[in-house]
UniProtKB/TrEMBL annotation, chain A:
Its EC number is 2.3.2.23. Belongs to the ubiquitin-conjugating enzyme family. This is E2 ubiquitin-conjugating enzyme. Keywords: ATP-binding, Nucleotide-binding, Peroxisome biogenesis, Transferase, Ubl conjugation pathway. Residues 3-129 form the UBC core domain.
TrEMBL record, chain B:
This is RING-type domain-containing protein. It comes from the Eukaryota. Residues 104-126 have a biased composition (Polar residues). One of its GO terms (cellular component) is CCR4-NOT complex. InterPro entries: Mot2 (IPR039780), NOT4_mRING-HC-C4C4 (IPR039515), Znf_RING (IPR001841), Znf_RING/FYVE/PHD (IPR013083).
Amino acid sequence: MQASRARLFKEYKEVQREKVADPDIQLVCDDTNIFKWTALIKGPSETPFEGGIFQLAFAVPEQYPLQPPQVRFLTKIFHPNVHFKTGEICLDILKNAWSPAWTLQSVCRAIIALMAHPEPDSPLNCDSG
Amino acid sequence: MVSDSITRASAHAVPNTGGRDLGKKKRARSAKLKQCKLDVRREQWLSQGAMKNKDCKEEQNSVVKAGKERSNNRSFGNLEMRPRGGQIDGSIHHHHHHHDSDVESNSPNSLTSSVLESNYSETTFTSSSSSSSGGCCSGNITEDEEGGGDDGCLDDWEAVADALAADEKPKNTCPESPPEHEPIAQTVFPQETAIGSDQVENLNPPYSRVIPKASGNGHAWRPDDAFRPQSLPNLANQLSLPNSNRKHYSCGGVPWAYNGVVPSSCPICYEDLDFTDTSFLPCLCGFRLCLFCHNRIMEEDGRCPGCRKPYEHEPVEAETSVHGGSLTFRLPRSCSMITRS
């Protein structure tokens, strides 16, 4: 648990440092709980999501980074790999393909990539396929 | 040969008003840089071989004579140059004509002409490169013109050393050209310095002779030059590499695959790696992490964070330390990884 806290703190500092470098991602930590994060990501260009800003909620387990963070969309999004009601995301790196080398920032990038390139093979929202 | 050339470079690259001591200081670093730049230039010459311009050769005979006359006027550089003079023998013949046209017909700072002529001039140098490199072995010819050409060449190497070693302090003699372009331009055309000096003034300091023409004619490729081969290394990229390596943990993909680069901190816990950690390479993929994180991972699923393959060389140890079922627990995961990706 102490390790996850230390790591999240380092990530927080990293996010502050790289805030300008990646304007598509705004990663904010909860004021009182470092295990709760919120991210605002811009919809990738040349997709139906272009121009939109989507809010993500991160729930980081205490075993982080050995266990992946739980991420879901707070903003309603119509996407084959996102549950329309709960916002749950079907993304391999959030499940069995997670690696401790990933960070919350890189998870955001992966989600942006998923928005641009849906994977119809693992649908959570069959209607949007 | 290297030591010879360096000695002369230091003796003659410094302005004539003095500065021999300065030249001596620069010997050591110019030796290394010279070798590096030689390799780079050789690569450029080779890559440029396909673009030969035949027009250049027609003028050669007439211009060689002019070059001889001019370089005979140069007295100060010849005495020490003789033993190695043959090195530039071929290249001088190839270049006098071309350079003359440059200087006389174009203003040194005209950028429009420089792009066109970069193609033109580089092609001439492909022929001269072979002769100059071959001359390094023998170096017996002691004509005056070659001494002058050699002098110009060594001036260039000195300028290269200056530009590379002290790129943060801009040279006061050449404010108009960035340091990474200018040395390349000078190394391509050593002879132009000799000729240019003859036209302008014989006893000018080397820098003032070299730099305006090199920057103006632009014989080497600029980073945005259309003729620049893609395969050439970009100096700016090379310089920025160490910085990008520092951010290895924040990148997606497989950033740890940078060859031979040991991260300064553990990508998992972000703690600094100590000596034991840096010498610890648990996986063939090259992903490094601290022993503490490695131990924690072995207690959990035992897969390398870099390649997501199970750690191989410590399965027995992990089995004994963890529960008996961990092996059966681990195998299905690794199988699923393979089928998925």
